[in-house]
Every structure is written in C-alpha cells, then in structure tokens.
Design brief:
The structure is a homodimer.
Chain A lengths: L10 H16 L6 H7 L14 H25 L4 H18 L1 H7 L15 H14 L8 H20 L10 H16 L3
The structure holds a DNA duplex (30 and 30 nucleotides).
Chain lengths: ~190, ~190
DNA sequence: AGGATAATGTTTACATTGTCAACATTCAGC
DNA sequence: GCTGAATGTTGACAATGTAAACATTATCCT
C-alpha cells in the first residue's frame, strides 16, 4: 500500500500522454520540460532520464501527433472500397483532423527536427501513398505521374488545413461544401482533362 | 562627434531590421527580446519602449516577412502581361520565395497573433486575389468560383512550399520541373475539363 | 538470500530569458 | 533655458532548461 511510489512505473509514457493532452488543448505552448514534469508530479530533472533534452521530448510528442493523424486516415480509408473514394477519403480525413484537432495538428508539424514516424505505426504519408499507387493500378494515372500527383494532393490538403485552421483574415472558409470543392478540384488537377 | 549616443535614433526600425536579418539566417530561433537587444547594443528593457512585449516584436517581424513576400510576388507579376501567366507567376514567386528564404518564410507564418499586413504595403493575398479576379474578368472562371479557386491555388502553393521546404523524408522534390508540374496541375483544377 | 550494478528520481545550483519598477538622459516646444 | 514627454539604463524577480551530485529502487548473478 505504498502510495509514495518514488519510482513512477512508466514515466516516459506518462510524459508523452500528458504531453498529448496539452497539445490537444493548446498546441505547442505548454510542452516545456518543467511544465510537463509538474503535471506528472515529478521533478523536472526526471525527464532527462528518458529524453536527452526538452526538444527531444517535444519532438516525440510531435511524432505521436503525426501517428494519431495516420490512425485517423487509416480509419477513414478502411470505410471505403472504391479506389477513387479511398484516395479522397485520406484527404478528407487529413483536413478534418486538422480542423477538429488544431492543437495536435500544429504540434504534428512544428519543425523540431522531426523524428520520422516509427515504422510499425500508421504513417499518414504511407497511407496516402498507398492510395495513390492504387489509383495508378486502377489506371487513373500513369506510373510516371505518381510523384507529381502526390505532390499536388499532399500540398493542397496540407496547405488548405494550415490556412483554414489559422487566423489570417485571408483564410479560406472550411465548410463541408468548401472542402468538397477543394477535393473535387484537386481531383481535376490529378486526372486532368481526359 | 559624440559616439556615445545613448539615444539610438530609431531603435524600433533597428530592431526590426536586425530581426529580419536573424529571421533570414535562422528562422524564428533568435527573435527573443534579449538577443535582439544585444545585437543592437541596447539594454533589453529598451525594447519595451517600442513594443509592449516580446511576442509583439516577433509578430512585427513576421509581418515584415509577409510584406517581403508580397513584394516578391508583385515584382514577378509586373513582368507578365498575359492574365493566365500573371496568375501563375504569383504562385511561382510564392514558392520560390519560400525555398530561397526558408527562414523568412517560416517566420512569416508562425502563429503569433498575426498582425495583418499594413494597408499601404503589398499584401501577398491582395496580389494573389487580384490576379484571380483578372482570371474571372477574362472569362477563365465564373464569379461564383472565385472563392473556391482561390482556396485551391493558395492551398496548393502554400502547402507545397511548406512541405518542400521542410525536412520530412516524405517531402516533395522542388526541382523547377516539379514546380512547373504543380502549377500546371493546379491550373487544371481551376479551369477544369472545359 | 545478499550484494553489486543499472535504472530511475531528487535536490542544489547556475545561466538565460522575459518583464516590472525606479531612475537617468535626451529631445522638443514654450 | 525650463519643463514634460520620449527614450534608455540598472537592478530585481520569477520561470525555464539543464549540469552535478546524491538517493532510492530494480535486477541479476552467484
């Protein structure tokens, strides 16, 4: 019945967990070493047993956020069978994630030396690319076009989310109709005028 | 010949100037009050005579960066006469700015409560929108399409620049050919299959 | 079981940063 | 030239990241 554990059990996991909570609530504002340590009721220095420095902790949280995005995309894709619809679902999920979880989304793309997604976890990019290869196999696009198609789709979706989620007065509106429209136009840019 | 001026002359301008230099060199990393004050050989507190706090200073630098982007776009547009080419030039200039000046570009879009572009300075968004309205007048698109066309073009270009300029392993390549391709596909998404 | 050793936390200490308050100097206009 | 407004300075304080030294617990080897 020792309540005072001293040892925490799994501090690393706990830090990442509370980090994600903070990220969800307020983006990258409260992801400092001291702040997160306090949340877990641990001295700041304990953090350094699990991360070489604060940047690294933030970076790991960023990675988790990216994985969360990947998971959402995967779920969305799983609901569709048609190749084209699967492809579009990835984009829609990406945008919806960005708008529903602005904190996580912004943390996912802060440029702290981004640790790559761990191999065994769903990568947004991986899912995305798979659906593009499917488009290729289904004859929508040529193999030689894969790279440039990916660039357009990825860019449009990422850019839209950034801009729509920001606070610029010039940001595009993010109504369902506007999103549909973006996706439809992007599709035009992909399959062209054939 | 008093070398010890004590008063600086125009500290605000000096801070913004050196801030831009730092931004160009290393993004948002060295835009703190103390650091910039040191660069101008002034005590940190002097900064507060010109900006209410550090965020505000950073935000003003961000604004300057956005204005610089606007200037580049304007220069690019001025070289073209054809409506379509003018429109595409804005996008190309945007991307090139982002790739040639990654520091400035990232600072331009940090989410410090973005001060809107000062009215009398070239706004990237303003230039962009003007060329879209020209597209409209020239009959390329319908008036009802302006918003969604703007959303696609702006998103694609912004997203591409963010991604290509980042360090993700999944970033698109940014060769001239790849950029041309993006712009061409985006154009397809705009004028569609007519 | 018991003791060496690795893992994991804590306290102290210090440099850096943003910012407040109080004080000093210069400028501008009467 | 004096007075008040602008503009800078110094000193103090709280918060942060992190190094060093120390303490506690877990693990593993005989």
């Amino acid at each position: 019945m020792k309540k005072n554990t001293y040892h925490h059990g799994d501090l690393e996991e706990a830090l990442l967990k509370v980090g994600m909570k903070e990220a969800r609530a307020s983006g990258a504002r409260n992801l400092g070493v001291t702040y997160l340590a306090k949340k877990v009721h641990v001295s700041p220095m304990a953090v350094y047993r699990h991360f070489p420095n604060g940047e690294s902790l933030k970076s790991s949280i960023s990675q988790r956020a990216r994985e969360e995005l990947g998971r959402r995309m995967q779920e969305a894709v799983a609901k569709e069978t048609d190749v084209k619809r699967r492809f579009q679902a990835t984009g829609r999920a990406y945008i919806q994630f960005g708008l529903q979880e602005p904190g996580l989304f912004s943390v996912a793309f802060i440029d702290c030396d981004a640790a790559p997604t761990r191999e065994d976890n769903p990568s947004a990019w991986g899912i995305f690319q798979d659906t593009i290869l499917d488009l290729c196999n289904a004859g929508y696009i040529k193999a030689s076009e894969v790279k440039s198609v990916a660039a357009l789709a990825w860019s449009a979706v990422h850019g839209f989310t950034m801009l729509a989620g920001g606070q610029d007065p010039m940001r595009p509106t993010a109504s369902p109709k506007a999103i549909d429209d973006l996706i439809e136009r992007t599709w035009q840019g992909i399959v062209g005028n054939k």
